[in-house]
Amino acid sequence: MGKNELLPGTLDMMVLKTLTRGSLHGYAIAQLLRQLSEDILLVEEGSLYPALQRLELQGWIDGEWGVSSNNRRARFYRLTAAGRRKLASETARYREMTGAIARVMGLA
Amino acid sequence: MMLRRIRYWIHSAARARLLREEMEIHLEVKIQELKEGGMTESDARDAARRQFGNFARQQEESRETWIARWLGDLAQDLGFAVRMIRKQPGFAVIASLSAALGIGACSLIFGLANFALFRPLPVENPSRLVSISGKSLRDGRAGMSIAYLDFSDLRQAQSFDGMTAFFSFLPATISSGGEPRRYWGSLVTANYFDVVRPTFAIGRGFDPRKDDIPGESPVVVLSYALWQSRFSADPAIVGRDIELNGRKVSVAGVTGPGFRGTEAMTFSDYWVPLSMVDDAAGMGRGVDRLHDRRGQWLAIAGRLRDGVSERAAAAEINVIGKRMASSFPATNRDRAFQTERAGQLNPALRSMIVVFFLMLLGVAALVLCTACANVANLLLARASARQKEIATRLAIGAGRGRLVRQLLTESVMLALLGGVGGYAIARSGAAGIGRFQIPIALPVDIAVSLDHRVLLFCILLSTATGLVFGLLPALRATRPDMSGALKDERVRFGPSRRIGLRDVLVVAQIGVCAVLLICSGLFLRSLQSASRIDTGFANHNLLMLGFDPSLNRRSEAETRRTLDAVIEETSALAGIESVTLSSSMPLDLGGTHNSFVPADRTTGADDRPVYADIYAIAPRYFETLGIRMIDGEDFRPGVPADDVVIVNQAAAVKAFPHQSPVGRRILYLGRTVRIAGLAATVKSRTIGEEPRPILYFPLARDPRGNDSLTGLTLAIRTTGDPAGYAPLVRETIRKIDPALAVFDIRTMDAQISRAMLLPRSAAFLFGLAGLVGLFIATVGIYGVISFSVAQRTKEIGIRMALGARRAQVLGMVLKHGLTLTAAGSAIGVALSLALARVASSLLYGVSPIDAVTFLSVPPVLLLVALTACLIPAQRAASLNPIGTLKYE
User: Fold this and answer.
1) Are B729 and B747 a contacting pair, CB within 8 Å?
2) Cβ-based contacts under 8 A for chains A and B
3) Mean pLDDT across chain B
């Protein structure tokens, strides 16, 4: 695992989290991830798309074509009810996990 | 989720295109933004691409989420299953062989039912062709023939595009293209082929404008099969004349392959139009066949007009039938008409056949169930052997669903292997049945072929079988609470108090096996008692040959001369004791059946008609067949002066209870007939029948054999082996009339063994099912016991170390096996007691709760089980206690 690469499975969770702000298109999600992580998490922007497909297949998000603010065609993704539940459970699990790691590392 | 995946998969091309577009837009926006931040076009492009990552790979990965993973898993599962099967080929062979037996049995039965009940006719739009038959309102009899005048009235119905009437048991001698032979065909109205619409190999059907008119030049349509076999597929046959019943008839066409008429199970080899009605033998003689409503002899098929439902057509037919009933009360008062899809079995026959097939299917399903239980048991045994492996995989995070799927793939694969074997079994079974001779002199077609539906059934059944026998073991094997499974073998004491799933399966197996064995026992006993049934005649040294003098349009005087010559010249042959002729022979199945009324019965005013089988016989019939004359006398040679009849005991008892019938009179077909003799009752149609009334008329008064469709039979009592006389007799007949076709040469012994078809085939089928069941159950019980011995190795070692003797260990293992068998047998016997009543109608002279059968099956099962348990028990008893404890 290279420097600053993501822990496996966390990308999906973070994508779900960004979508709690409303429906966004792929580019906006990438921008948001970069801004929120203050440029520390280096996500290949393209890897967002397999993640989006995965989430959509699971029924956690819904994609729909629309027009973006600068008048371009774009696919907007929206969190579904199932997605919201998934996010809650993932968040809880993540909290537990990082807490445990922190304790082991003697950080907490 | 599954559904969505399939939907994505179906639309994958469109989705991939849209995804690509989405990703390209992303890149463009990015480049735009970087340029706005001050980069050059090419720098911005490079930077954007760098940050985006590998475009193609990202796209590929996205697509994989909805296709490849799923397919990849499947491929992996299949590979795994193949590896497992190759690792244990013995197991795979036993499992798929068990499945093959069960699947084969079910597929064969389904194939037969499919053939008899569901096969569509090979005609244009077969679902729009309906058949119309008569139905008696008095006794509910269905599928009855219809008079020509009734047909003319029904033909007025508006619901049909066309309606045709036909008679499909028409024998004819064809003399062109080889030695004269009798064939079965149909007499049809000239519009027959326009209504039925089969394909034509060459030529055409009839001309409806003229071919219905009696006296028109005769034409014939040949079946593909006849054209191939007799005329070696001569392409120039259309327009040529062939000799049919001694008359030149022009061939109009040849139907396409497969078409053999519209009646299920009967077949026609040729069709002639109604203009040749006078050529048609028998059927309704004494009654004008075209102008009298009493002559009911036709079957009807109609093609529904476009947009008219079968139901609406039936309603219209019903209305016409009611109108006819009020206009012609003498003939039609109790008569209704019913319509149904053409090409189906006669409704009366159908319900019987459906019951028969359901019973067979039940047996086959039982065999399949034991086979499933067996394979499930083997899989369970293997699953416990693989417990550690599976527990390890679960522990390192394999999903349970994924593991179950993997195990199921394997069992479905085994079942499909079994399905392949099963289909082969069904095919050879069907071929065997096609070769079977049924004891009936009419054109009955049982050349069963398996079509795509049977193949589909086989595949579906195999898959279902695999899922059924695989599911429980798979769930069992992947149970998450596998505490201890990772540790090595546990020491378990005693046959675990809990009754194991495997034990339950074995008990069920033995139960089913007991049911099958009891059924086969019952049918074997029934066969035994059927072969002891007294037929009433002497069957040895009796030869029979069929011929039909009515087919060659000879005059009555000519026919009489021929018959006299045949009797005279065969009687003169050396080694022949006695010769006679009859319109039908005992156990012929087909034959004429009609009613008579006792004319001068003194007691009781009851003049209800008595139904009797009608025979027309030559003198010495009773002598030749060895039937006892009780009273009166046999017919003498020559034409009797008055109308006389000989009745059998059964007819006498019904018509004149407690009186001597000889000298009394009966009314038959409007004639008053004097009873000249009384004969003992013999079996007339089937071996298991109740005594049937019979009227024997003198053939001399009616040399055409009393409307017999199957012609006459020459019966000869010989001094030696009867079959050896056949060529000589045949040659004699040929010399008398070279145009006579001789058919159905058989001995009475063969006739009787053919008549035993039902008890014999039932005994054979159930016997086979019983043996297969026994084999499968033996394997099952052996598997369970040896597995339990293997599991309890350590326990047995400890016991022996503590002083248990060999005999005690042996007894312990045997007790386990015998307990299971006893429980299974008890269940089986109880089930059979409940089921046996259903079979009672198929049993001859055996009670459905026959004590011999019921008492002998459990000991047989126990004995077999004992043998099966002996090997593992001995293995257990000869264990070395030190060795078992040291292991580990």
Assistant:
1) no
2) 65
3) 83
More confident call, B172 vs B14: B172
**What residues of B are in contact with residue A58 (Cβ under 8 Å)?**
1
> Closest to B53 (Cβ–Cβ): which among A46, A53, A75?
A46
Buried b (16+ CB within 10 A) or exposed e, B442-477: bbebeebebeeebbebbbebbeebbebbbbbbbebb
* Residue in A closest to B60 by C-alpha: A50
Average pLDDT value for residue range B638-657: 89
Closest residue of chain A to B16, computed from CA coordinates: A53
First-to-last C-alpha distance (Å) of chain A: 24
User: In this complex, which of B8, B25, B59 lies closest to A57 when CB atoms are compared?
Assistant: B8
pLDDT (mean) for B282-308: 79
The residue ranking higher by pLDDT, B450 or B785, is: B785
For residue B480, give how far its alpha carbon lies from the nearest alpha carbon of chain A (Å).
Answer: 22
pLDDT of residue B171: 85
Largest Cα span, chain A: 51
Helix intervals (H) in B707-756: 726-736, 748-755
Number of other residues whose CB lies within 10 A of the CB of residue B6: 12
Q: Dihedrals φ, ψ of B850, to 5°? A: -55, 120
Q: Which residues, including other chains, have CB under 8 Å from residue B500's CB and lie 6 or more apart?
A: none
Supply A1's token pair: 């695992």
Torsions phi, psi for A26 (to 5 deg): -55, -45
When pLDDT is averaged across residues B575-582 and rounded to a whole number, the result is 93
- pLDDT for res B364: 84
pTM of the model: 0.64
Helix (H, G, I), strand (E, B) or coil at B91: helix
B382: helix, strand or coil: helix
Amino acid at B858: P
List, in order, residues 6 or more apart from B92 with CB less than 8 Å away. Answer: B85, B414, B417
Structure tokens at B738: 């070279």
Residue B162: which H helix or E strand, with range?
Answer: strand B160-174
Out of B1, B25, B26, name the one closest to residue A45 (CB).
B26
Residue B648: C-alpha distances to residues B690, B692, B877 (Å): 13, 9, 71
Q: A73 vs B25: CB contact, 8 Å cut-off? A: yes
What ipTM is given for this predicted complex? 0.85
pLDDT, tens digit (0-9, with 9 covering 90-100), for B515-528: 888 988 888 888 88
Q: What is the pLDDT of residues B161-212, one digit of tens each?
A: 999 999 888 888 898 888 888 898 999 999 999 999 999 999 988 988 877 7
Taking the C-alpha atoms of residue B249 and residue B275, their distance in angstroms, rounded to an integer, is 12
The helix (run of H) or strand (run of E) holding residue B300 is strand B296-304
Please indicate if any CB of chain A lies within 8 Å of the CB of B24: no
**Taking 60 as the threshold, does the pLDDT of residue B482 lie above it?**
no
Residue B590: closest CA among B467, B707, B458, B439? B439
In angstroms, the Cα distances linking B51 to A38, B48, B54, B291 are: 16, 5, 9, 98
pLDDT at B776: 79
- Cα angle B789-B790-B791, degrees, rounded to a multiple of 5: 90
Residue ranges of the alpha helices (H) in B677-805? 726-736, 748-755, 757-791, 793-801
Is the pLDDT higher at A70 or at B695?
B695
Dihedrals phi, psi of B270, to nearest 5 degrees = -155, 165
Asked whether the predicted pLDDT for residue B10 surpasses 80, the reply is: no
Task: Tell me how far apart the alpha carbons of residues B866 and B493 are, in angstroms, rounded to a whole number.
Answer: 23
**Lowest model confidence (mean pLDDT) among A57-61, B614-618, B881-885:** B881-885
- Look at residue B647 in the predicted model and tell me its pLDDT: 95
- Average pLDDT of the residues in B831-853: 79
Q: Check: CB of residue B780 under 8 Å from CB of residue B864.
A: no
Asked if B16 contacts B59 with a C-beta cutoff of 8 angstroms, the reply is yes
